[in-house]
Amino acid sequence: MTLKKSFLIPLGIFLLLVLFLGLGFQLKDPHYLPSVMINKPFPEFELKDLHQPEKIRKKEDLIGEVALVNVWATWCPNCVIEHPELLRISKDESITLFGINYNDETVKAINWLARREDPYRFSIVDDEGKLAIDLGVYGAPETFVIDSLGVIRFRYVGPVTNEVWQQEILPIVEHLRSSQ
Amino acid sequence: MIRFAAAVLLLFSGVQVSASGAIDAYPFPSEELQQRYDALIAELRCPQCLNTNLAGSDAMIAQDLRREVHRMLIDGNSDEEILEFMHERYGDFILYDPRISASTILLWLGPLLFLLVAAAAMYRLLSKPKVSGSLSEEERVRLDRLLAERDRP
């Protein structure tokens, strides 16, 4: 009898392993890369303004209120998808959007915005992707929520749809505003 | 002939063009830096890819990070500083050689744990006393009866 029971132990361990690995692979999106920048201050930078190249933008230009920082590019198809929603947010919701034009060509980027309308207070030219690396960005679009002190509070990877805005971003924005 | 020999010599003279170097062709002032670069981009995982290192990826972010590794090496940063720089920005995801932390401790100690469990099980199994010769009273009676039955003509 004791012999039989001890035979069940490896089987039990095996089943437990199957359960954990199975759950691990099913529930977790393997592409998901959690941001390590959450609750860290926005990185310092000195980069040109997209529309006024003589103007150098700094971190201080982003700070003051709860705001969205959106990483975008003309080569990024999902940026086209999220653009109408960003426009709507910039008009209907009282929140400032800043753009980081990531690894792009400035002329193309200016035309892209002119064609589609510009939701950003201003866009920063990050043509070498250095600010993006400091932000832990690994693709576009990515959208960061920063608080009034310039601390990163949330990051969303992928296109911001109305659903994403309502369910994921707006609650955080409201929470940050109420706790100020 | 001499020219041919020179070409062969050159081919084997340790002038290596690594696969990664072939894409970006970053110049390094020394062989040592080149080797450290190759090792680093092999060890760092491309953040956008599932299972490709920086050396093997053509993704934009991989190109940017390779350029960053190159810049930091030229600036005289140590390997550890470069790995730390990447880890600060991209977390555990970017390191193929995971650091020991609360979430990776099982990964590190798991195999040792399995070994210990297996060793303990084996020890118990081997050190168990032999069961022969320890029949119960009931079994002995039954054995006697069976043997007697067999011996009967």
Write the layout of secondary structure elements.
The complex is a heterodimer of chains A (180) and B (153).
Chain A: H1 2-27, E1 46-48, E2 56-58, E3 67-72, H2 77-92, E4 96-102, H3 106-116, E5 123-126, H4 130-134, E6 142-146, E7 152-157, H5 162-178
Parallel strand pairs in A: 3-4, 4-5
Antiparallel strand pairs in A: 1-2, 3-6, 6-7
Chain B: H1 2-11, H2 19-24, H3 31-43, H4 60-74, H5 79-90, H6 105-127, H7 137-151
Oligomer: heterodimer
Return the string of H and E elements of chain B. HHHHHHH
How would you name the CATH homologous superfamily of chain A? Glutaredoxin
What's the rounded overall pLDDT mean of chain A?
92
- Uncertain spans of chain B, ≥5 residues at pLDDT below 50? 14-22
Question: What is the fourth-level CATH superfamily of the largest domain in chain B?
Answer: Cytochrome C biogenesis protein
CATH class descriptor name of the largest domain in chain B = Mainly Alpha
CATH architecture of the largest domain in chain B: Orthogonal Bundle
Low-confidence stretches of chain A: none
Radius of gyration of chain A: 22 Å
- Whole-Å distance between the termini of chain A? 66 Å
Radius of gyration of chain B: 32 Å
Roughly what fraction of the amino acids of chain B lie in strands?
Answer: under 5%
Report the structural category of chain B. Answer: mainly alpha
